[in-house]
Amino acid sequence: MDFTLPPEIDDLRLRVRSFVDAEVMPIEADRANYNEYDNIKMSVLDGLRVKAKAAGLWAPQMPKVRGGLGLSVVGWAAFYEEANRSIFGPLCFNCSAPEDGNMSVLNKVATEAQKTRWLQPLIDGKVRSAFVMTEPHPGSGSDPAGMMLTRAEKSGDTWVINGHKWYISAAGVAEHFILVARTSDDPRKGLTAFLFHRDDPGWHIVRRIENMGPDEHGGVCELKFEGLEIPDENRLMDVGDGMKLTQIRLGPARLTHCMRWLGLAKRSMEIAGDYIENREAFGSKLSARESIQIMLGDVAHDIQIGRLLVMNAAWKLDQGDFARQEVSMAKIHVADTLHKAVDTAIQLCGAKGYSKDTVLEWIYRYARCARLVDGASEVHKMVLARNYREKGTDFWQWGV
To answer: Under DSSP, is residue 284 helix (H, G, I), strand (E, B) or coil?
Structure first.
């Protein structure tokens, strides 16, 4: 692949950077703009979103005919990395998780009628959404096909859902939900995906689960389904295609996480760099010390490896490849790199980095979930090991 960005994508990337610097960073710097969960207040976010739309920086992953920018996956990578130089950036541009993955999969697999009802309000930023799959033990986690217990039973033209889900991101504020449930015991075609609305009866939120945070809007929630009825017209894809839909959604969604995490890693470096350029100790600036230069160079090296892995996977997705191996490699490396970058930055900034005078402590708490979300790092390493066993030396292939 050619790593040169097309001029229009590079121009867009620089416009995102300018918007983040001018509009988002000042909001982020004022703690009065944070809610009780350490995220941006919705009233403040709404104003930024209006400005982002006016600047032509809205919904980069969605088609132009639906109000988005229609970017390729490579274009997403350039956009998202700049967007997440601020902890609030992706929300401003409507490219944050889980919205990003939900919109993308609906755009790929939903019928036109479903897109009009369920997707367009998400693109417009009028509603939020959630992807409902993970279950408490002994239900589905990293192995949904084999372990999912939530069931959907057909009754005429309606599906009746009973089961238990948890750690469902954004469920506390979501109005549109994508639910995966078991419709048969077929080991390959046993799951089916459905759409339902927050106001539909037959389900409830048990609790919003407290965690290390910072917490996204709507948190992570535990849900119970006790006779939720979903019309067959709100089924996504064919009966038995639930696992296929999950794979279509999760591959690109994992990669967009990496794109955003690279932005946060770079931001951590920026904060540390500014600090060591001004802080003096024992007669010289910290930036003049070779040991500190080595620390920063090491992180810069890992960030660049992450960018190359992400761009390679993005390019393969744009070619129509599932890029499972490439996405897993990017996910493992970038998750580790984010933690390393912010940990190094806190070490260099000392007490200031540990305090809330910078966003480093926010990023540090957030970074710990990177090795867990959308598949723990160990699962992705298993994927790579399996691929290597199957391919041998052909594990390392050039695109021809």
So the answer is: strand
Angle, vertex CA 317, rays to CA 372 and CA 83, nearest 5: 60
User: pLDDT (tens digit, 9 = 90+) per residue, 55-96?
Assistant: 999 999 999 999 999 999 999 999 999 999 999 999 999 999
Contact 123, 176 (CB under 8 A): no
Closest CA to 378 of 335, 323, 322, 337: 335
Residue ranges of the chain that CATH labels 1.20.140.10: 243-395
pLDDT by residue (tens digit) across 237-294?
999 999 999 999 999 999 999 999 999 999 999 999 999 999 988 888 999 899 999 9
Judge residue 358's burial from the number of C-beta atoms within 10 Å of its C-beta, 0-12 exposed, 13-18 middle, 19 or more buried. Answer: buried
What does the mean pLDDT of the chain come to? 96
Q: Which of 72, 87, 86 is nearest to 17 (CA)?
A: 86
Query: What stretch(es) of the chain map to CATH 2.40.110.10?
Result: 129-238
Domain with CATH 1.10.540.10 in the chain: 7-123
Instruction: Reduce the DSSP state of residue 356 to 3 states and report it.
Output: coil
243-395 maps to CATH 3.40.190.10: no
* Residues constituting the chain: 400
CATH class of 129-238: mainly beta
Chain centroid to Cα 138, Å, comes to: 26
Measured distance CA(321)–CA(314) in Å, rounded: 10
The class that CATH gives domain 7-123 is mainly alpha
